[in-house]
Amino acid sequence: MIDKKPIVSLFLVPPPPSFATSPRLVLPRDYTPTVDPLVNIKRYTGRALDRVIGIVWWVIVLLGAGSGALGLVNFALGFGAVGFFKRWGGFEWVWKLWYGQ
Q1: What is the pLDDT of residues 20-56, one digit of tens each?
Q2: Is residue 25 part of a domain?
Q3: Which of 20, 24, 27, 37 has its CA 20 to 30 A from that of 51?
Q4: 59: nearest Cα among 79, 43, 84
Q5: SS (H, E, C) the chain
Q6: Residue 83: which residues within 8 A CB-CB, separation 6 or more?
Q7: How far is CA 4 from CA 1, 7, 11, in A?
Q8: Is residue 86 part of a domain?
Q9: Does any domain span residue 5?
Q10: Which domain holds residue 49?
Q11: pTM for the full model?
């Protein structure tokens, strides 16, 4: 697969001196790494949060026809409309206004 991302900038970096060495992390000799006992809980909690937030964001973008900001506006308007119709009893007031009953 060909990478088609544009090049934004090029930097000319001088080569490192020949005597320079890479910095290294020196650990104590008695250090022994241990496995985190909560690794599975953290893994699956993170995955579940990732999926929930991802699906919510997908729905918001879907409501906004590809725009997250417009999706949030549409969600707010829809939420307000539902609250309005719950407060005023649905469409009954519209029928009474139009048909005078």
Answers
A1: 677 788 899 999 999 999 999 999 999 999 999 999 9
A2: no
A3: 37
A4: 79
A5: CCCCCCCCCCCCCCCCCCCCCCCCCCCCCCCCCCCCCCHHHHHHHHHHHHHHHHHHHHHHHHHCCCCHHHHHHHHHHHHHHHHHHHHCCCCHHHHHHHHCC
A6: none
A7: 9, 9, 20
A8: yes
A9: no
A10: 39-99
A11: 0.53
